[in-house]
Structure formats: C-alpha cells, structure tokens
Amino acid sequence: MLPVYYYLGLAIILFTLGALGVLIRRNAIVVFMSIELMLNAANLAFVAYARYWQSMDGQIFVFFIMTVAAAEVAIGLALIVTIFRTKASIDVDQISTLKG
Amino acid sequence: MTLQLLLFIVLALVAIASALGMLISRNAIYSALFLVLNFATVAVFFLLLNAPFIAVAQVSVYTGAIMVLFLFVIMLLGAERAGPIQTIQWQRPLAIILAVILLLEGGYILLGQRGVVPMVTAQLPEGFGSPAQVGTDLFSKYILPFEITSVLLLVAMIGAIVLTKSEKK
User: Domains plus CATH for chain A?
Assistant: First the structure.
C-alpha cells in the first residue's frame, strides 16, 4: 500500500483547483462544478483515512457527503434556471442586484 | 508496490490534468466532460483504497446522475459559451495568489503531520468496505443521520420543484 500522504496530497491539490475555479470562473454552472470538485477531494481524503485507520466511519461519511452534494446540485441548478429566466444570463458578475 | 506507485502517479496526473482542463476550457460542456473524467479517476482511487462500494456509488451517482443533470441544464439554457470579457481586473491574479497560498498551507500541514498519521498496514479486517459492511454500519450505527438524509433529499426535491415552477396568476 502507498503511504497516506500521497492521497492526501492529491486531495489538497484537487481542493485547491476547485477553490481556484470558484474564484476565477464567472459561469455559474462551472462554479458549481468546482464546488463538486472540492467535495470530491474531501471524499478522497475521507476514504484514504478510512483505509489507514481501518475504520468504516470515513466511508459512511462519504455517502452522506454524496447525498448533500446531490441535494445541493438539485437546488443550485434550479436556482440557476430561475435566474436565467429573469436575467437571461448566468454570469455571476451580472447577478449583483438582489432584485427580482 | 512499484506497480501501484506507477498506477497512482499516472492516475493522479490524469486527475489533476482533467481538473485543470475543467478550469481552463471556455466551453461549459467541455468543463462538464473533464469533470466526468476526474470523477472516474477518483473512483479508481477509491478502488485502490479498498472501498469498492463507494467507487461504484461514485460512478453511478456523480458521473451518472449529477453530471447528466449538469449537462442537461447547460444544454437547456444554451449557456455553454462564456460571456463577454469584463471581469474585475485584479480578481484573477489575486485568486491565483490566494490559491497558491492555500496549496502551500496544505503542503506545510501535510509535511508537518508526517509522524502522526497511522502506519501502513497491508492486512485488513474481513469484508472491509464491502456492501454488507457498509449496509450494516449505515443501518445500525448511523441510522439517525441516514433518516435525516432522507428528509434532506425530500426537501431538495420539493425545493427544486417549487423554484422552477412557472408562476401563474
């Protein structure tokens, strides 16, 4: 087996790339995808530690994270569709008015 | 050991390259497909870490359901092209600097924790990560969180329906 640092390092890199995507992309859908990437990096760290502590708890938590991610995507995409209907744009720079 | 290391390095390069591709590509559909590739490689990492059930769930839930939903919404809105370039000028360099700082902090913590994390052991308990073990834990130790997630999913479903319902007056 490989040391746990390898997997943790990869999870850190993927999380950083996801955070960078949230900051630099202006397409709201790509911002959502970057959030998914960050959640997935957290999943990787959870599973890596579950393997090295030989405990199932980390793997069970991954299921809950997946559930939360699915709920978040459903609500987030519904919000994006609603915003697109009113503003005809999903550029996050344009959504700055908080008016209907 | 060396074979596994080689597999890890190749897959890690694919994962990082696909994440970068998701960030860089101008077309949102390409971004979604790069993210599918990334999720698939992470599923292989789950297999390497003795979590076969999570790997299958990753493929079916993430790369199946969630990414299909993303692609569906991108094509429904026809919003795959990036808008006109009128971003705040200082935002992008600042974001890259902050990301590098985050990466350095993560690396520093990782190197600082070298002696704390558990030693590598090859042997595992019987049935570790199997669907039977996952189900047993989910329905005994974690029964309350499991029930709460069902409420969460119900709320998400109702919320999505209410948000996208067309208003009739």
Answer: 4-87 (1.10.287.3510)
